[in-house]
Specification:
Layout lengths: L2 H15 L3 H23 L10 H13 L9 H22 L9 E4 L10 E4 H14 L1 H12 L4 H8 L3 H21 L1
Antiparallel strand pairs: 1-2
Helix pairs in contact: 1-2, 2-3, 2-4, 3-4, 4-7, 5-6, 5-8, 6-7, 6-8, 7-8
Length: 188
C-alpha cells in the first residue's frame, strides 16, 4: 500500500467520523484487500472445515464497524486494529453458536514459533480466547498487541502504531506476552 493510499484511507476515516457518509462508500474499496488479508490471518488458525469464509468474515466485520456510532477514527492503523478485534469476536461468537466450544472441538493452531522457540499446539478457539482474555485483564496493552500480531498479522512496527507506543515498547510487551501465554498454554 502506498503512502498516498494510506493518507487517503486516514482522510476518509476522518471524514466519515465527521459525518460524511459518502466517505464510507469511497473507503470500502481501499480497505477491502487489507481486510481480506487480516481475515485470512484469522482463519488460517481455524480448523480446515470451518464454515465461515473469508469474504463473509470481512463483510460481517465491516458491517459491525459501520454500526459503531461513537468511534473517532484516528488512522488507518486504528481502523485495521479494530477490524482485527471485530473478526476475533465474530469467530468466537461463531464457535459458540455452532456448539463447537467444547474443549478440542474447534482447534486453533497456536504457533508458539511466533511466541517462543517451541513447537505449536492445538487449542480450541474459545479456550485460547479465554486465555487471551485473562492476559488482557492483567496486561491490557500487551494483550491488544498479541491480538494485533497473532490474529491481525501486523508487524511490531504496525502494531506499535495502532497502540501509539514505540517499537521498543512493543518489543518488550511482546516478550512479556509470549512468556505468559507460553506458560498458560503449557498449564492447560
Amino acid at each position: 500500500m502506498t503512502i498516498t493510499s494510506r493518507e487517503n484511507i486516514t482522510r476518509l476515516l476522518l471524514d466519515w467520523s465527521g459525518g460524511n457518509e459518502a466517505a464510507l462508500t469511497s473507503l470500502f474499496p481501499l480497505v477491502y484487500d487489507e481486510l481480506r488479508h487480516i481475515a485470512q490471518n484469522h482463519l488460517r488458525r481455524e480448523r480446515s472445515a470451518h464454515t465461515l469464509q473469508r469474504t463473509a468474515l470481512v463483510h460481517e466485520a465491516f458491517l459491525r464497524m459501520v454500526d459503531q456510532q461513537s468511534v473517532n477514527w484516528q488512522s488507518r492503523a486504528h481502523f485495521f486494529g479494530l477490524a482485527s478485534q471485530m473478526m476475533r469476536r465474530i469467530l468466537v461468537d461463531h464457535a459458540r453458536k455452532r456448539g463447537t466450544a467444547k474443549r478440542g472441538a474447534n482447534p486453533v493452531r497456536v504457533d508458539l514459533d511466533q511466541m517462543s522457540d517451541e513447537a505449536g499446539v492445538d487449542l480450541d478457539f474459545e479456550h485460547f480466547d479465554q486465555i487471551l482474555q485473562r492476559f488482557e485483564k492483567l496486561e491490557p496493552r500487551s494483550g491488544r498487541l498479541v491480538e494485533l500480531r497473532f490474529f491481525g498479522g501486523l508487524s511490531i512496527d504496525e502494531a506499535a502504531a495502532v497502540l501509539d507506543i514505540s517499537a521498543a515498547t512493543a518489543k518488550r510487551d511482546w516478550a512479556i506476552a509470549r512468556a505468559w501465554l507460553q506458560r498458560e498454554i503449557a498449564l492447560n
